[in-house]
Every structure is written in structure tokens, then in C-alpha cells.
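Supplementary Methods S3. Input chains for the assembly prediction are listed below.
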Amino acid sequence: MTCVRTRCIVSLRVYGIYIMTPIQTGSQTVGPFFHYALITGDDQRILATPQARGEHIRIEGSVYDGDGVLIPDAMLEIWQADSAGLFPHPADPRHHEADPEFRGFGRSDTTGAGNRFWFHTVKPGARKNADSTTAAPSINIHVFSRGMLLHALTRLYFSDEPATEQDPVYAALDPVRRRTLLAHRADLPGQPTYRFDIRLQGDGETLFFDP
Amino acid sequence: MLDRSIHPPYLHPPYTSTVKRAPHQPLVPLVYSLAELTGPVYGHESVRAIDNDLTRNAIVNGEAIGERIIVTGRVLDAAGRPVRNALVEVWQANACGRYIHKLDQHDAPLDPNFTGAGRVLTDQNGEYRFTSIKPGAYPWKNHHNAWRPAHIHFSVFGTNFIQRLVTQMYFPGDPLLPLDPIYNGIPSEAGRRRLIADYAHDVTQPLWALGYRFDILLAGRNQTPFE
Ligand SMILES: [Fe+3]
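Predicted C-alpha cells for the full assembly:
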């Protein structure tokens, strides 16, 4: 194992051999002043060109603190498959077939109108898991904000998608708490829209995964 | 997996904003699928050559004011292997401790030739490098007479979604570090030490700028296609 300069700790002694464990770089808050570096315009909220395959949808919502107060300085990052369930990343064995009009990653803040984040994307496709179960359409979400020393990880599922209930990750979650992962269809004029609010703490607290 | 002796908890009461923003329910373990083992891929179209020189990327009518610095280091995965084409985004206050952000109310001057934002991709050795101005300390409202130690914010994308890291780099010998609840949110001394850059005389450029080295070790390993 490579030792990163002098920043090692001796963590284990196995059969008389010390195993050096490099120390990870710890997380720190994104703070309140990230916008001019990380939020470079609306393009980051748009994952799909007009030519992208699949159903074009808008996802929007708000982030609330433990008092139910809107958080005006959060940042969300999302990552999802294209409409065929493919990721534009070399770890996906079929990534060469991924939709070139779709990029999978989006970033939004909550500083604008109504303190809502929004994304223009396509509804992700289902995927086959390695054990031949089906992964329902879903979107991974990281939440960053002032007051969060470490980002939070959650996942959006679609309430009107029959595959959601059969998804092995979703099905294994607490039946009450997992409802916080459901986005609900709430179309705006001319725009298929899903609403997904995030509650960091307290009543209706969003289910977060170990990041 | 995140090393929880290194990464901060959500609730850290000395940093008062964590009190209402920390999840209370236990975190649910997630078995990683392709959705976690993939992530955005960046290429040279993502950055311009000048993006990593904060002393020049925002010039309006003169030079950025303050002590010039060069910060370099490697981005590595949990096994110590270089992460290539990692996107590193940085942002910071100016030499007076003032951010250009419209909500920064600190009564200190703005520098018209410095925005304090930059970005760079790591090279084939996982190495990044940028030139900047040493940021000043600044006051904040966490507690009476609270001051943040000088720091540079870092945002790093590894090769997949779960390697994502946002952190802050600090400077050696800063007397404000023991007093800072954000820095001290890192539970272990070894973890805190890792957030302090080393002064690096071999990086220092004669008659121009002081050098610092700051390596970044991500949680999780690179996926095979990158080896
Ligand atoms: Fe800061």
C-alpha cells in the first residue's frame, strides 16, 4: 500500500507485519459562499438536451431544517442513469450505448425564487442488478450546506412507478421512513414535474444513507 | 467507505448551525450499486488554462493584492493510487478575509482584481496545481469574537459518486485553528492534521510565490477501468 508522505498511521499488525493505513481527507462544510465558484449558471441544472431520449421531466423541491424553516443556502448534486438505465461512465459495461445528449450529473442551489432547487432531466430507466433483480428508476442526491460538516446522501424514487415497490434497496427500508424518498407528480403547465422536498431533521425527516 | 474517525459527525454543537441541520435518525447502510460506483467524468473541455491561476483569472484593472501562493498536491484514492482527471474546484476569501459573495458583510475591502474562484483537473499523476493569494482570516457569527482561520475551500470529484469530497485546506501554524469549531469538527488529531497544508520550499518560486503542498485522499477505491 502506498503511503502518502508522512501522513500514515500504523493501524493493524497482522502476522508481525504492520499495515500502513493512509488517512483520508476529512470533509468540511461547503459554507455559505460557494455560489460564485460552484454555481456557474442554469446549465448545471439541465442534464438533458432537447434531443435526449426519454420522458423529459422537471424535478423541484425545497430543503428544510429541524424547525421546518426553508434553507436558502443549500446545494444539491444529483447523479442518475439515462432513460435506458445507462451511465455515461466507464464502470458501466454498456456506457458506449449511453445517450450522448444526456449527462447524468446536475447541480443546483436553493438561493433563487422560493428557495427551491430544480433540475431539468429525463426520467431514468430501470436497470438489472447483478443478481438479476430490477433496480427501479432512481436518482442519487448529495445535499451540502452551511451547518453540514459532511454532505448527506439520499435517493429519489418515483411514487407513480410500479417498479419502486419491488426495488431491493427500497423494499428493505423501513416502510414508513422510505416514503420520504418518493417524488410526487405535480405537473406545471406544459411541464411534467416531480416534487421532492428534503427535511434534514425532525418531523418527516428524509431517510439518509451512510455516505 | 468513509472513515468515521476522520470525517465529522453531522451534529457538532460548537458549530451552532449544525444543531438544526443535523439528521437525527440513524443513517441507513447502502450496498453500492452501479449508481454509486459511477459518477460524472470530466475532460479538458471542463477547464480553461487560466482557471487555475486566481491571481490572473479575474483581472480588471491591475494585479490581485496580497501574498502570492502556489498550492499543489495529489488526489489519491483510499489505496493511495492517483486519481486522474479529477475535477478540483477551489474558492476563498481575498487577502483581507472578504469573499466577493453578495452576502458577505465583513467590513473589509474587496479586491477588484480577485474573485477567489478557480478550477483545475488532475494530471496523469493525480496532481493538481493552482496559483492564488493567501486568504485572510475573517470573523463570523458562530460565537462571540469568532474568527475562521485562513482557509481555501476545495470541492473534489473522484471517479465515482461516493468518492465526492468537499473540504477546506488550512495553513501551518495558524493560531486560530485550536479555536475553530469547523476545523475541530474532525474527531481525530491525525484527521485534523491532514487538513493543514505543508509549507513546501521546493514548490516556492524564487522572487515570486510561496509554495504549499496539500494531498487529498478520497474514501473508496478507483474502479478498474481507471487503473
Ligand atoms: Fe470560508
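Residues 1-6 of chain A have pLDDT under 50 and may be disordered. The pocket of fe (iii) ion is lined by residues A 31, 33; B 148, 151, 153 (CB under 6 Å).
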